[in-house]
Amino acid sequence: MLVYPQIDPVAIALGPLKIHWYGLMYLIGIGGAWWLAGRRLARFDATWTRDTLSDLVFWAACGVILGGRFGYVVFYNFEQFLQDPLWLLRVWEGGMSFHGGFLGVMLAMWWFGKRHGKSLFELLDFIAPMVPIGLGAGRIGNFINAELWGKASDVPWAMVFPAWSDPQQLARHPSQLYQAALEGVALFAILWLYSRKPRPTMAVSGLFATCYGLFRFIVEFVRVPDAQLGYLAGGWLTMGQVLSLPMILGGLGLMAYAYRRQAAAQ
Prior knowledge:
mainly alpha, two-stranded antiparallel ribbon, 9 helices, about 5% strand
């Protein structure tokens, strides 16, 4: 069993002002994606300026944050929202959903593309290889916060999380690190290598959706579901798996359609 590193969730405290590691992880994810997007900008569209890219990153970030919050409320805790509608605005109390953020980014990119003469999937194909940076950083933030841990386990790398987070004090799967490795490191490597060569429009987006959905579906088997939802069926099916399955099927469909359309055009 490994010892959980006792890291203060507050990275910097200046009097009443507290900056949490989780918030810094968002900045790292957005900043890293911005930097890599700048390196790929000429390949994507040589007519775009850095200001255009800055606007793209800004609207994508808005899609992540607003969509992530709305998604968590709708998918995971809609009953609490009905009881306390203002809870939607209290983001500092926690609660973000990747799937909601994914939909938020799609909506933001559709709107941005309409203004700049780009299709939705042209933009999604461009930003998809950079997204795993934020995903990986976010999961590290979850780990520092000692939240979203996994099921009890006797694997050698199981950890006992702090008592304020896990009153049962059981050795558990550090599922946040599994997700950081898969959704962050592995997904980044797959998409970055795949997108180095020209691919038909929709293919990179399809690969992203397929791989993320598959990785998330797998990790959900060892991750404890949200307490207010629990398992949806069979003692194993979680909301995360229900939301990931359409991503897997939709991603495979996008890739098949992209290559079929390219073959027909040739």
